[in-house]
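Action item from last week, closing it out:
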Amino acid sequence: TSSDNASIPRIQLVCSKKTPSEQAEWQEIAAAATEAQVRLQRKYESNGKGVLFEAIKGGLLERFEKRQATEMAKRVSMDGGQFRVAVHRARRDFQDLFRQVYGRAA
């Protein structure tokens, strides 16, 4: 479960919805996103790519600024193109895992 992995903070989503059911749904989505991220991290670590995951995890839900992406690519000994491909693949895998965890069309 997501509580087993302290290195990944819970994903916080800003909810402008007012009803308790809408807020509960947002909390459910955030919990599913956190669990998907934990599962993705475990996948990367089991393949010996934990360092790469640490570099790309900030780009799973948000876009990297160009300067930031260049810096992260250097940290993992990749050029910019290789890093962009790695982020793209990680986002795709994250989306698949999120769909599995959340269990709804996302």
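Closing note: The radius of gyration is 15 Å.
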